[in-house]
């Protein structure tokens, strides 16, 4: 494992921890899109089906279980916890996220590394992850005041994606036969979606003002 | 022997 991959996994882990911290200690999910969290729960459930068929490493298994467990529990908290669910910006979080799923499924049926159930699900999870952040970005844009934890959550997620791109470049040059077009293209699309947010985040950080996205 | 695939990533 190279440093970019490890740093990418760690920023991903931290993003989840930041979100759980917000939910557990502040008992608030204000500014967090349930739509995006539901998509992530579906992304990890469909991608990690190979937990049952392939063993890669203890690290890999533990991380998969963490991402599965945390994404499902975040959805549960936002939907059912009697305090947390009251802070959910239901009226602002109106992105019709289920409409993203059908095109991703069709694309996965057409473009996959192998036409088997696990491979189609794997490709589906990659396509869906690429667009899963959209409801969150729309919600951020609608929310006037973005609190620090929410801003940091999205920043960490974006950093995780950018580090994975560096990891692919590194692996391409250091490993034989390491070519994965599906992962790369969907990963790059996903990273580009964060570019706008990054821009405004660093502007607000540089000028030391509260993060606000233009309407 | 098949090389490990992208599936070793998360």
UniProtKB/TrEMBL annotation, chain A:
<dbReference type="GO" id="GO:0005789">
    <property type="term" value="C:endoplasmic reticulum membrane"/>
</dbReference>
<feature type="transmembrane region" description="Helical">
    <location>
        <begin position="98"/>
        <end position="115"/>
    </location>
</feature>
<keyword id="KW-0256">Endoplasmic reticulum</keyword>
<dbReference type="GO" id="GO:0015031">
    <property type="term" value="P:protein transport"/>
</dbReference>
<dbReference type="GO" id="GO:0005801">
    <property type="term" value="C:cis-Golgi network"/>
</dbReference>
<dbReference type="GO" id="GO:0016192">
    <property type="term" value="P:vesicle-mediated transport"/>
</dbReference>
<comment type="similarity">
    <text>Belongs to the ERD2 family.</text>
</comment>
<feature type="transmembrane region" description="Helical">
    <location>
        <begin position="152"/>
        <end position="170"/>
    </location>
</feature>
<keyword id="KW-0812">Transmembrane</keyword>
<feature type="transmembrane region" description="Helical">
    <location>
        <begin position="182"/>
        <end position="202"/>
    </location>
</feature>
<dbReference type="GO" id="GO:0046923">
    <property type="term" value="F:ER retention sequence binding"/>
</dbReference>
<keyword id="KW-0931">ER-Golgi transport</keyword>
<dbReference type="InterPro" id="IPR000133">
    <property type="entry name" value="ER_ret_rcpt"/>
</dbReference>
<keyword id="KW-0653">Protein transport</keyword>
<keyword id="KW-0813">Transport</keyword>
<feature type="transmembrane region" description="Helical">
    <location>
        <begin position="121"/>
        <end position="140"/>
    </location>
</feature>
<keyword id="KW-0472">Membrane</keyword>
<dbReference type="GO" id="GO:0006621">
    <property type="term" value="P:protein retention in ER lumen"/>
</dbReference>
<keyword id="KW-1133">Transmembrane helix</keyword>
<dbReference type="GO" id="GO:0005783">
    <property type="term" value="C:endoplasmic reticulum"/>
</dbReference>
<feature type="transmembrane region" description="Helical">
    <location>
        <begin position="55"/>
        <end position="77"/>
    </location>
</feature>
<keyword id="KW-0675">Receptor</keyword>
<dbReference type="Pfam" id="PF00810">
    <property type="entry name" value="ER_lumen_recept"/>
</dbReference>
<protein>
    <recommendedName>
        <fullName>ER lumen protein-retaining receptor</fullName>
    </recommendedName>
</protein>
